[in-house]
Amino acid sequence: MKKFLNACFFALCSLSVSAQIQVKLGGTVANTDASKITLARVEDYEKFKMNEFEEVQIQNKKFQKTIQLLEPGLCIAKIGDKSILLFVEANENIQLKIDFKKEPFYEVKGSKGSELVLSYNLEKEKLAKEKLKPLEEKFKKANSDEEREIIYAQYLQLQQEIEKKLNDFALLNFGNSIALFFLAVQWSDETDIAFIDEVNQRFQKKFKGTKIATYVADLSEDYKRIAIGSVAPDIELPNPDGKNIKLSSLRGKYVLLDFWAAWCGPCRAENPNVVNAYEKYKSKGFDIYGVSLDDDKDKWTKAIEKDGLRWTNVSDLQGWDNIAAKAYGVTAIPKNFLLDKEGKIIAKNLRGKALEQKLQELMP
C-alpha cells in the first residue's frame, strides 16, 4: 500500500452507502499539453485493484464534469505523467488548479479529505527537511561506526517524534473525514495501537458498510494482533531436517522471533549482533526462533552454518509468501519481535546494541 501511495502522490472517489451520488470535478491546467484527465477508482482495497471509469476533457485549459460514484472511497486523477490522489465524500464540488511547473503541481479546493491530505504531506516534507535532512548529512560525514551508530539512534528517535507530531496534527484536524484512510494505509507494526483504534473508530462511525471502511477495520485488526502487549500468533514451520516446530514450544523463555534470509545483506550484517546476544543470554533463559524468507534450502542451510545460528531455524521456503511473514505483516527484513515468557510481544525491531540492552533489563 505504501508503494502504491509513493507511486501515485494523491487521489479521488466518492460516496453514500445506499445509493449512487454525484461529485463535481472542475478546474484549470497550465504548462501541459494534456487534453484529458482519466479517473480511476479502487475496486479492491486489499489488492489495490484500480479500474478506469471516466474521462474528463480539457478545453481551453479548463475542465468540468459531474461524476457518478457508488460510495465514499479513493480514486486517482491521471493527467499526463502525473497522478492526483483525491479523498472524496458525497456532493463535493472539487476544484483543481494544476500547474506542471509548480511544486506541488496542484492545489485542491472543495474536497475536505483531499485538502487535509495535501496539508499533511506538506507538513511532513517540511519536518523531514528541517529535522531529518541535517542528520542524514551528518551521518554521511561520520568518521567511525560508533559515531554513525549514535547518529542513527538519534535519527530513529527523531523519526518517532515527527510521527507523533504528525499523528497529533491529523487527529486534531482530520475529524472523521475520509482523509483518515490516508493515515490507516501508513500504519506499521510500530504504530501506537491507541492511535490505530482511534482512527478506525472515527472512520467506522461515518463510513461503516463501505468497501473502504471494511478494509480499514480489517487492517486495524491485523495490526492489533501483533501489537506490543498482544500474545504473539503461533507459528509452526519445518526446520532444515523437516521437523515441524511451534513458536509456542519455546514458552517459558524470552524469545526473539527473527525474520531474515540468506540473500538479505542487512540481515547477514546484523547476525553477529544476534549471535553475541544469544551466546551471552541463552543460559539465562533466552532463545531465538529464526524464520527464513528463503526459497532455496541449500543457501539457507549454508547461511545458518556460516553465520553460526545455533538456535531454532525454520522456513517453508516460500520466500515472501512465507506463511509466518504474512501473519506478522512482514514486508521488509531484518525484522524481529521479542516475546516474554508467556508469549506476549514486549518489543520490536531490536537491532545492534538495542537487543543486548533490552535483554540486560530483563535478565540482569
UniProtKB/TrEMBL annotation:
In its UniProt record, which GO terms are filed under biological process? Answer: cytochrome complex assembly
Q: Which residues form the signal peptide?
A: 1-19
Q: Name one Pfam family in it.
A: AhpC-TSA
UniProt keywords, alphabetically:
Cytochrome c-type biogenesis, Disulfide bond, Redox-active center, Signal
- Gene Ontology cellular component list: cell envelope
Taking every annotated instance into account, which residue ranges of this chain make up the domain Thioredoxin?
226-364
Q: CDD domains given for it?
A: TlpA_like_family (cd02966)
Gene Ontology molecular functions: antioxidant activity; oxidoreductase activity
InterPro entries given for it? AhpC/TSA, Thioredoxin-like_sf, Thioredoxin_CS, Thioredoxin_domain, Thioredoxin_ResA/DsbE_sf
- Record localization: Cell envelope
Q: Respond yes or no to whether keyword Protein biosynthesis is given for this record.
A: no
Record's protein name: AhpC/TSA family
Q: Which organism is it from?
A: Raineya orbicola
